[in-house]
Design goal:
The protein has 208 residues and is α+β, with helices and mostly antiparallel strands. Helix content is 31%, strand content 40%. Strands 1, 2, 3, 4, 5, 6, 7, 8, 9 and 10 form a ten-stranded mixed beta sheet that branches. Strand 2 and strand 3 form a beta hairpin.
Length: 208
């Protein structure tokens, strides 16, 4: 599944690049995500989601496949598995930064997403709408962090058993309610269908 989204950051492009490549700093801005540890170039943690009364959490890892500061391009690979067998998720995310002005940067995201299990049953349209809402929420959380309206980022603690591994002390987030994230767009789409049906019926009645 291919998804495209974008959001704006009220910072120059070089500063935005430094922020977005600092995973530990931006992790608290990701809805439902909790970073547990970092080892080398791999970031491990969980993402918690809910679909109405059904909850699931994906444990997994993400790593940078590419960081090109010349073209302001980031390629990130992520994978997650629900340990209860509810499904799994894999994604390749490509982010390209675009300078809109000396003080504003647009982040364009292209995601190649593969889902299985309960979440996949939501369907492409709903998942696309949910993704857009979550990206918007991430952008809002990032803005709050940069403006000092969000608590400081997680604390990194060296793992005494492994010299390259660091544990991350990050508060447990609330699970993402996917149906709540999709509710408004779905209702708008349903309303549009109802209006279209009413319009068609009205046109047919006039022809009689």
């Amino acid at each position: 599944m291919e998804l495209s989204n974008s959001f704006d950051v009220a910072r120059p492009i070089d500063e935005t690049w430094a922020i977005l490549t600092d995973v530990e700093r931006v992790a608290p801005c990701l809805p439902g995500a909790q970073l547990h540890e970092v080892e080398g170039n791999e970031y491990r943690g969980v993402v918690k989601v809910r679909i109405g009364p059904v909850s699931a959490h994906y444990t997994g890892a993400a790593e940078f496949l590419e960081q090109n500061p010349t073209d302001y391009k980031i390629v990130l690979s992520g994978r997650g598995l629900d340990p209860r067998g509810a499904g799994n998720a894999e994604a390749i995310v490509t982010a390209k930064l675009e300078s809109l002005s000396d003080t504003t940067t647009r982040v364009n995201l292209d995601t190649d997403l593969t889902l299985s299990g309960r979440v996949a049953q939501l369907g492409r349209g709903v998942i696309s709408e949910v993704g857009t809402n979550l990206i918007d929420q991430f952008g809002e959380n990032l803005a709050a962090m940069l403006d000092g309206r969000q608590p400081p980022g997680p604390v990194s603690v060296a793992d005494g058993h492994h010299s390259e591994r660091r544990r991350i002390d990050m508060p447990e987030p609330e699970a993402i309610d996917l149906m709540d994230a999709a509710r408004t767009p779905v209702l708008k789409r349903l309303l549009a269908v109802i209006v279209l049906v009413v319009l068609i019926r009205w046109l047919l009645s006039r022809r009689r």
